[in-house]
Design a protein that fits this description.
The protein has about 180 residues and is an all-alpha fold. Helices cover about 65% and strands about 0% of the residues. It has helices at about 5-15, 30-45, 45-60, 65-70, 75-95, 105-115, 135-155, 165-175.
């Protein structure tokens, strides 16, 4: 059975419980559920879009390098990445409480169902390597969103064609001891 965003959203809605860890309670199982969910989201993308998303968004590989690694035209990669980003953003904005306060799903509220269904095993964690609380992860996600917006401000302020002198000025501004 192929996973898609509709099936995943239905699964998430059916598995919410109030008897899991609280939003501020730290748990390895919360991290296990979160990672499992992000991997499930990736599985909702077809292979070409999933690869474009992983290389271009998660690993932040430059477009030309990602396109070369995938042996596709850079324009094809850009389009795939755009569609994959759009699909992931639409899903997380609607269903993921880490991204949207209006979304019902919370990692901590999925723990009970994940354990019951065998998707998370307290005695044999597959992904988690640290205990987290839903609230601390949500705060980190929101902070990253703000940092990303600031990064985009800088990315849109492209300097004129780079030169050795410009590069030296940038190095001197960042590391005056080297200047």
């Amino acid at each position: 059975m192929e996973l898609n965003f509709v099936r995943l959203s239905e699964d998430l809605a059916e598995g919410l419980a109030s008897d899991g860890p609280g939003e501020n309670e730290r748990s390895m199982l919360i991290e296990e559920v979160k990672i499992g969910c992000t991997l499930a989201m990736l599985q909702c993308l077809d292979r070409p879009h999933r690869l474009a998303y992983i290389l271009g968004e998660i690993l932040d590989l430059p477009g030309a390098e990602a396109a070369e690694a995938l042996d596709v035209d850079p324009g094809v990669l850009r389009k795939r990445l755009e569609r994959a980003r759009s699909a992931i953003l639409a899903f997380t904005s609607s269903y993921c409480g880490l991204v949207s306060d209006d979304a019902a799903c919370r990692c901590n509220r999925r723990v009970t169902a994940a354990v019951r269904l065998g998707r998370a095993r307290p005695d044999a964690l597959e992904f988690a390597d640290r205990a987290v609380s839903f609230e601390e992860v949500r705060t980190a996600v929101r902070r990253a969103g703000e940092a990303r917006r600031a990064l985009e401000v800088h990315r849109t302020s492209r300097p004129r064609e780079s030169s050795v002198e410009l590069a030296r000025r940038i190095v001197a501004a960042i590391d005056p001891a080297r200047g």
